[in-house]
Each structure stands twice: as C-alpha cells, then as structure tokens.
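Same chain as my last thread, 459 residues:
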Amino acid sequence: MQDVLALVCIVCTQGAIQRKGIGMARTILMGVCFASLAAVMAFSVLADDAAVKADALTNTVDPYNVADQKTKFTKLSGNTGELDAKTFDADRKAGGNLVMPFEKWETAAAFDKNKNSTLDWFEFDAYRQAMRKAVLAACDKNKDGKLTGDERAIALKLLAEGKLEIKPEPERPVAMPPMAGPFGGGAPAAGGGPDRNAIEQMHLDFRTRMDEINGRIATLNKRMETEKGTLSAEERQALAKAIDDAVAESDRAVEEFRKAMSTATRSKEQQARDREQAWNGLPKSLQGFLARNAGVDGDGNLDDAKREAAFAFMMDLNRANTSWTSMMNPKDATPEQQMETMKKWQPVIVNLQKDMLKRVDPDGDGTTPPEKIAPEKWRAFLEKFLNGQVRYMERFEKQVLADNGGKPNDKTRAALIQAIEADLRERVKKADANNNGILDPEEGEKFFRELMDEMLKEE
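reply #2:
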C-alpha cells in the first residue's frame, strides 16, 4: 500500500499544492512533515502568484499539473486506460473533471498516434503539452513562461473561440540519439532547443518501464487474491511488501520522468530561474539550515552549485520517511485490512484538514478551499510552520555536529536524519496510549494536533 503525505500538512493543502504541479498523493516523511519541504517551496512560489486564481487553465495549461491530470485521466478512462470520443464528450458536457468546456475531441484525436480511435495517457499528455505550448506562444507576452492578468483572460478567450492551433509536432526522420541511462538526454538540438527525437525516446523508455512495473504489480495483486487462503502470515507480509516496493518504484519512475522532461523542454536559463525562485521563497531560517548542513553556508546568496547542494540535502530529508501504514496497521496486516484501516481514518483526516485551515485562516470555519485562501495567509502560516520545523531540527543538529568535530559532512547528514527518525518513532510509541503497537484514529488525531501545536509555537 502507498505511504501517505504527512497528515498535518497535506490533507488540507493538497489543492493548493497541486496548482503548482507537485504530486502529493504518495510519500513524504511521517509526522513533522520534513518531506513537505518540497511542497512548501511550491507554496512559497504560489504566494508570489497572488494575482493568479484557479480557472480553466489551472492544472490543464498553466500550471500544467501532470500528477493531477494523470489521476483524473486514470479515473475517467477506467480499466481500459484509454479515452474514447464518447467518454471525452460526456465528461466535457457534464462540466467535466478532466475535459474543459472549450475542448473538442477532434483536436485531441489528432494525437492518437496508433490510430485506434482512443487516447492513452501518453497521447493525452502530448495533447496537453501541445495545448500549453500553443497558449504560451500566443498569450505569454512577456515570455516568462507563465500566464498572469490579461494574459490569462486572452488565453481563455482564444481557447473558448477555438482560435488556437493545437497540433502534434511533425515527425522527424532523424536517428535516435544515444541515451545516457534510462531517461538520459541525447545530443542537444541545433540552437540549444529541445531535441524532439530525444524527448520521444524518453516517452518510449518511460512507457516501457511503467508497463513492466504495472505488470509486476498486477501479478502480485492477482497472487494475493487467488492464494489468500493458502498464504501464511509471513508470506502475505512479504507479498504486501513486494507490492509496496513496486508502487514506490512506480512513483520514482514518474518523478524521474517528470524531472527529465522538465530538463529536456526548458532552457537552462529557465531552469536556473525556477530554482532561484524556489530558493528565494524559503524562509531565511530554512535556507540557513539547509546550506549549513550541506556544507555551503554563506550569506544566503548562494551560487547555482551551492544552492543545488542545499537542495540535495533537502531531498535527502524528504526521502528519510517512516512508513505511515506501519503506524496504523499490525505488521502482518493484509492490503485489504490496510484499506479498511484507511477508511476508519477518514474522519480524522477531515478533522485535521479543518483544523489546519482554521490555523491558516483564523477568520474561516475550516471549510474554505485551500486555493481560495489569500496567498499572504498561506505565506505567514508556512513561514511560521517552517521556522518551527527548523528549531526542532536544530536541536539534533547541534548534538550531531558536536559529536563530529563541528563540520558537516556525509556522516553528520546521515546522523542528523537518523536522529530525527528515532525521535519520531519514540513520539509514536508514546502516543500509543493503549499499547497495541499501532496508532488508532483517536490516538493519531491527538498525535498530529500536538505536533502541529509544537511546530507553530511562538519562540
């Protein structure tokens, strides 16, 4: 089963995060949300986009949210994984979850590469990418890679009137360049632009990899179902872990592909601006913590290489997660039992969502959609929350550095992460009031509320 996002952060903010394209439905560090640092970067950027409100372009064009669109596509296409004209038009007429009012099947069908009268996810993604390209070419007047103000209004008008030409890139009969690794880039195209052959090959490599992983997951799930009466507890546990590992591998593949595509389709200058904007959106206390432990501490004005080192340490923190399901379920719980547990936790998730939204917007009642809360309120909340996280982590940082001569290195970074994980495990143990080895929903709600209180406590 999938790990879930750190509840105290994601359950109530996923809508706003998704506006910036962060795939939030998988794994981050349990409890204090250290892996939410990446999400917070997105929130910080979001707060700078105060003028941009959710509209028909959000998730579909600007920003184009691959995770959001893939989730909706998967739900709409059902077991076939293919979208046909009837389903496409029905979703559009119903005020669709995926298909926008201005979209036409005839336009999307031009991306049906294998001419089977349906679109799979890769074909639909190519259609979305082409739509974004056409919109930006026509409406992004200042060429900053995003739509604001009048640019969005013009884009919506042109799409509604069907005046933008959205079509596939023409085939180029050029030999595929060599690939460096599963998603490596080929030789750059003339003029420094994206190499369309390399991008096409990346799509093919990704599809091959995902087909293999999904086939493995299907086989494991089938065995879990057909042999459930004969498997021992140990065998069920091993099988469940194999499924978990395969799902995690799928998540990694999607993230690697997303990053590779972003690199391949955006200029180095655009990528540098994105990274600098993300870094500048972080509170100074967090910038200092990351830079200090990455060994590149300075006055905060880091060059690209040093900033990347700080980001790399942040990613290490993100990956240092504790399985959420292990807090909620006995070790021998079957996938079916884990699903039942998640159902029992749903009321707690709702309560925590309302609690956080009230903290973000004290004037509200906890039911305001995250994207409708003023960006400045999000910024104030997140800065306070992150400053609390930094204070928490600094307690371990001081001891770790003292034990290792005061200078950060790979050893101190690993020790810091281990110390944080150990503290979280001890907190979970103390929160297990009935000593049954797991956190029941009531225990979990109290646990997360107390963590949130601690992170938001005034200095």
